[in-house]
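Friendly challenge for the regulars: who can give me the structure tokens for this chain first? No prize, just bragging rights.
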Amino acid sequence: MYDMIESSLSDGIMIITIKRPQALNALNRELIEGLILMLEEVDANEQVKGLILTGAGEKAFVAGADIKEMAALSPVEAMELAKLGQHLSKMMEESAKPIIAAINGFCLGGGNELAMAAHLRTASPNAKFGQPEVNLGLIPGFGGTQRLPRLIGLGRATELILTGTMITAETALQWGLVNHVFEQAELMPKTIELMKSILCKGPQAVAFSLKALYGGQDRPLADALNQEAQLFGLIFSTSDHVEGMNAFIEKRKPDFKGE
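First reply, four minutes later:
Bragging rights claimed.
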């Protein structure tokens, strides 16, 4: 498993690199299970403040799920694999620590579904996005039919899923699938810079904002607004809110402790 995943930690930023270059970093069951374990470690490790997920090399972030492995699955095994991939995506989405997918090359099928579960997405100009499962007689199974329309709208998502075509990084940027497109050599430095711009804010405020954003997606507006009000009130019980407001009044940089 760990032959397929490389990790490093610096300045509170964990970088996880998927390494299956011979398969364009395609997701197999072992790799998915390994990423789940890594996410558990990220959530438990107080030294980790944010996570950047990327793929090894310049050809692919993740080119999809492992077709050779999937070809042998029974219907029940396929459903179990889908639920495993959905569990990984849900863990990412619900993480209290910000997650950015740095997309370098092909981001297709399960790879696109993995990227969509991150809180933000950056891409290199050569990145290609799509849900090409229909070309194999399949449908997206790791959340693509649900997250893609939420990000780019039902009409565009329907066309991408039903035609199985790919879009460029520039189109993905225009449609809101990615937040930024950076030149290949600048992808990781700029993504790290973006993460640092988040991590210098109040950690509790970042975590509560993520909870409000993603916790309200599937709720009626009134319920989501009620949750937002509760979280807004709860943040006033933290020391960081006192520090942040005092720093603003005193015209100085805040010293957040995450408390």
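DSSP finds eleven helices and ten strands in the chain. The first helix runs from residue 29 to 44. Your move, everyone else.
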